[in-house]
């Protein structure tokens, strides 16, 4: 990675939006990369809108405030509507399939729909849908080493939830597999 990679994670509060960004940021820090993580959420948190901007860079980051993104990972329609135009040509829009009514219309970006909620329910834990999306994202844009994602997960997940790390790892791997399968069908 020679250029900074600028990502927006967006959805409703409670969907693990901020956690996805934190995990990428921690993993990049473990690798000695420059990182910016900037959350934004409404005062109501759970159920309100939430997003975070993450920048992973080999060089110093001049500003954490950006309006154009290399990748957008979105979990709801309002976020897709808001951030689809902000993805740079050649970028990636990755979204949770069941949450989107009107799919992205751009043809100058890579678009990937992931059935993360459906797959998470098969694992009997809908809360890992964000990890399925994160796994798919990392398959498409391997910004950080997978082992460092697991180390970062241990830092981000509160210790009382560390018993869920194997399930989160399973969800990450499932996301990677889904993204790989999508590559073959496109």
Brief rundown of the structure:
This protein has helices at 17-30, 77-83, 116-122, 129-140, 146-156, 165-185; strands at residues 5-12, 34-41, 49-57, 69-74, 87-96, 110-114. It has 6 helices and 6 strands; from the N terminus they run βαβββαββαααα.
Written account of the structure:
It is built from six helices and six strands. By secondary structure, it is of the alpha/beta class. It has a single domain (about 5-185), classed as Pyruvate-ferredoxin oxidoreductase, PFOR, domain III (Pyruvate-ferredoxin Oxidoreductase, domain 3), CATH 3.40.920.10. The protein has a six-stranded mixed beta sheet, sandwiched between helices. The longest helix is centred in the last third of the chain and has 21 residues, at about 165-185. The two termini are about 25 Å apart.
Keywords:
Pyruvate-ferredoxin Oxidoreductase, domain 3, 6 helices, alpha/beta, single chain, 186 residues
Helix-strand sequence: EHEEEHEEHHHH
Instruction: Compute the average pLDDT.
Output: 90
Percentage of helical residues?
25-40%
CATH topology description: Pyruvate-ferredoxin Oxidoreductase, domain 3
CATH class designation = Alpha Beta
Tell me the count of domains. 1
Number of helices: 6
* Total number of strands: 6
Helix-strand blueprint:
Layout (H helix, E strand, L loop, with lengths): L4 E8 L4 H14 L3 E8 L7 E9 L11 E6 L2 H7 L3 E10 L13 E5 L1 H7 L6 H12 L5 H11 L8 H21 L1
Parallel strand pairs: 1-4, 4-5, 5-6
Antiparallel strand pairs: 1-3, 2-3
Helix pairs in contact: 1-5, 3-4, 4-6
């Amino acid at each position: 990675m020679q250029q900074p990679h600028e990502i927006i994670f967006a959805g409703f509060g409670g969907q693990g939006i901020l956690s996805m960004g934190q995990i990428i940021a921690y993993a990049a820090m473990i690798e000695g990369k420059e990182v910016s993580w900037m959350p934004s959420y409404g005062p109501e948190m759970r159920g309100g809108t939430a997003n975070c901007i993450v920048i992973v860079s080999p060089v110093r980051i001049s500003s954490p405030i950006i309006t154009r993104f290399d990748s957008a990972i979105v979990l709801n329609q309002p976020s897709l509507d808001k951030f689809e135009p902000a993805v740079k040509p050649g970028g990636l829009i990755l979204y949770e399939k069941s949450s989107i009514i009107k799919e992205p219309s751009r043809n100058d970006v890579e678009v990937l729909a992931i059935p993360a909620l459906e797959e998470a329910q098969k694992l009997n834990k809908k809360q890992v849908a964000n990890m399925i999306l994160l796994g798919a994202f990392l398959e498409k844009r391997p910004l950080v080493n997978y082992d460092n994602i697991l180390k970062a997960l241990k830092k981000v997940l509160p210790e009382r939830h560390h018993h869920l790390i194997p399930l989160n790892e399973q969800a990450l791997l499932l996301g990677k597999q889904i993204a790989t399968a999508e590559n073959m069908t496109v």
